[in-house]
Amino acid sequence: MRLLLIPAFLAVMTGSALAFAEPSQADNPAGAQASANSPEEAQKVPAGKFIQDMGNSAIAQMADKSVPQDQKMDRYRDILRASFDMKTIGHYVIGRAWNTASDDQKQEYMQLFEKLVLKTYGDKLNLYSGEEFRVKAVRPESEKDSMVNSEITHADGSPPTKVDWRVHDEGGGKLAVIDVIVQGVSQSVTQHDEYSSIIQRDGGKLDSLLSLMKKQVDEQ
Fold first, then answer.
1. 2, part of any domain
2. How far apart are CA 81 and CA 69, in angstroms?
3. Helices 188-201 & 207-219 angle (0-180, nearest 10)
């Protein structure tokens, strides 16, 4: 089973793909959904500033070679928790199985979900070699969702990688990433189908998926 669950910015920096949650159709405050079609404007709009700040923070952590690996993992975890709606993402990936899972299973699944994201890609993040991240534009998708267009330029001179971020306004000034599209391709459905296949083979239960995830955590 491929593990595609890693925040897009960190994944693209290390040449990996990602998957995240299906776009939300909820409503958004006017400030977060304002359209901005130049980099300068986009980085001032709340959703654009949110993504640019996240990118700047991630780059700073990856570029700092003086920080021990265990401390970097803690900082990556902080970025993940602060920037992504992990519950919505995790819920979508396992689909209807979330509704029938026990509270203990939900808690275990989310813990494993986060551990796999961090553990699978933590070592690769140390290979950062001078990439640059820039928000390019922001456009409203619904009353609560904005699409933030960005690109990552690479130190080796290869063409920039285009990354789009669906940012959801959760209220009270809290923004969170709920979907990412890399080079025009969202892999959320792929990840959802992959996990759903495992769950279906287990009669709609989470047991087999949880066992596999625990095995992956132990193996890495």
1. no
2. 18
3. 120
* pLDDT tens column, 101-154: 999 999 999 999 888 777 765 555 555 667 788 999 999 999 999 999 999 888
Whose CA is closest to 148, among 13, 21, 47? Answer: 47
Q: Decide if 3 is inside a domain.
A: no
Query: What residues make up the domain containing 101?
Result: 8-219
89 domain-assigned: yes
User: Does residue 147 fall inside a structural domain?
Assistant: yes
Q: What whole-number distance in Å separates Cα of residue 154 and Cα of residue 143?
A: 34
Alpha-carbon dihedral of residues 205, 96, 140, 187, nearest 10 degrees? 40
Q: Which helix (H) or strand (E) holds 124?
A: helix 103-125
Find, among 37, 12, 50, the residue nearest to 159 by Cα.
12
> Average model confidence (pLDDT) for the chain?
80
Domain count, the chain: 1
Give the C-alpha separation, 193 to 181, whole Å.
Answer: 17
pLDDT tens readout for residues 31-51: 445 577 788 999 999 999 999
For residue 167, give the CATH number of its domain. Answer: 3.10.450.710
CA 137 – CA 44 distance, rounded (Å): 10
